[in-house]
Amino acid sequence: MRGSGPLGRARLALLLMAAGAGARPRPTAPGDQPRSNVVLVACDSLDGRLTFFPGNQTVDLPSINFMKRHGTVFLNAYTNSPICCPSRAAMWSGLFTHLTESWNNFKGLDPDYVTWMDLMERHGYRAQKFGKLDFTSGHHSVSNRVEAWTRDVDFLLRQEGRPMVKLTGHKKHVRVMEKDWWNTDKAVNWIKEEAVNLTQPFILYLGLNLPHPYPSPYAGENFGSSTFLTSPYWLEKVNYEAIKIPKWSSLSEMHPVDYYSSYTKNCTGEFTKEEVRNIRAFYYAMCAETDAMLGEILSALRDTGVLGKTIIMFTADHGELAMEHRQFYKMSMYEGSSHVPLVVMGPGVREQQQIPNVVSLVDIYPTMLDIARIPVPQNLSGYSLIPLLHEKAESQASPRGPRPSWVLSEFHGCNVNSSMYMLRAGRWKYITYSDGSSVPPQLFDLTADPDELTNVAITFPVIVLSLDKVLRSIVNYPKVSSSVQEYNKQQFISWKQSLGHNYSSVIANLRWHQDWLKDQKKYENAIDKWLGK
């Protein structure tokens, strides 16, 4: 049921903006106009399929819809690694994950790594960041990194609380995720008090935690984030009738890596349709709250008169499965997890354009440099989006020639017991694991099977071989997988040694403690056996 309650300031501002958005100036030639300001709003865990039909029927997202009407939406944008830090490391470096070696949430870029924002600042932009960054090493919980390091150990332990929903507040409770609103307010105030007075172009970044699930302290001392929390105000923005209940394979029919993921995410138990529908509804409501924060930024740009001089981008580090394929969270190459939103509006960007080309987050780096008219390094994994946004022939705009017809995503972290690699090309999505032979690959025809329910790898062996050849030309993935395995083992050994006599107590009380404490000696022996290999 869509709400007819208070529109709120953000909604009213959008209605005002719609009346004047068409008056934005258009550049005639790059050198004839001042460089555009840039605003990047990057949220956490928003399924990119919600930005176009039919996903956009499930929840009211007026700010994203406004950007689509006055800009461009990418229909096939992907994360380069479906987990927070590695994905963000790719976005801020312009390099694939096997090049940044951001193997898990603990290992990202060095703190002094030169990002696109650093280069823009050096070339005359005023740079400002607010909110979640999460692309450098050393962050996230001990549980998160230990689970990643030990994924090759021969045991199976639940690492998360059971996914659940929680309703808070009342029908006028708008600011549920207070930290995100606080950062949004800071960004709005900066636009109104500082950006408006600048004589130089600016680059503003706002990082949001939503719609990432909330922590679940009920799960014990060391807990994960498996709670989908919202208020009635946001839940009214959801169209319950449009919520699709995903089909699940039986546990015995699941791909072995999917089963491991589902089990460690505490999703192999029984769930009623009502539970699944509520989890998805609450998630969509959290997306609606995220959208409202984007609306505040758009309103501030409009109110200060700089909207027409500013390129705005909205994206996310990865998606959210929301119980598709019997999983929540990300750490998967299925569409719900790997498909991200990418919406762009501003000077020179064609309005009401839908771009079907496959793109990914590494494309942000060269795009930012293109906007700032900074020479783009030739060693980047990504390609500028500007030719697509301006409808120019890419071979004319880039000395590297046209962008590839594929995108690459890879994952090496927790909740998955194998390195995995995804190549999306045309209608096909190819997923392979580890050394390419020890775990069966997956192939999905996204045109015929958009829900990715039927693995057709055996049916189309020629396609599999062809896509695998392309993948191996990009990355020697068996070698990378082996390197990650060695890294995991060495990191765990160092961590274990640092704990000394406290090791047994510490490892028993990580997020998996509810299972671990049932047979502590068994699991310690499994780790010792792994270390002895």
Automatic annotation (TrEMBL):
GO terms for cellular component: extracellular region; lysosome. GO terms for molecular function: arylsulfatase activity; glucuronate-2-sulfatase activity; metal ion binding. Its main location: other. CDD domains: ARSK (cd16171). It catalyses: Hydrolysis of the 2-sulfate groups of the 2-O-sulfo-D-glucuronate residues of chondroitin sulfate, heparin and heparitin sulfate; an aryl sulfate + H2O = a phenol + sulfate + H(+). It is an enzyme of class 3 (hydrolase). SUPFAM superfamilies: Alkaline phosphatase-like. Keywords: Calcium, Glycoprotein, Hydrolase, Lysosome, Metal-binding, Secreted, Signal. Its EC number is 3.1.6.1, 3.1.6.18. Its cofactor is Ca(2+). Signal peptide: none annotated. Catalyzes the hydrolysis of pseudosubstrates such as p-nitrocatechol sulfate and p-nitrophenyl sulfate. Catalyzes the hydrolysis of the 2-sulfate groups of the 2-O-sulfo-D-glucuronate residues of chondroitin sulfate, heparin and heparitin sulfate. Acts selectively on 2-sulfoglucuronate and lacks activity against 2-sulfoiduronate. Belongs to the sulfatase family. This is Arylsulfatase K.
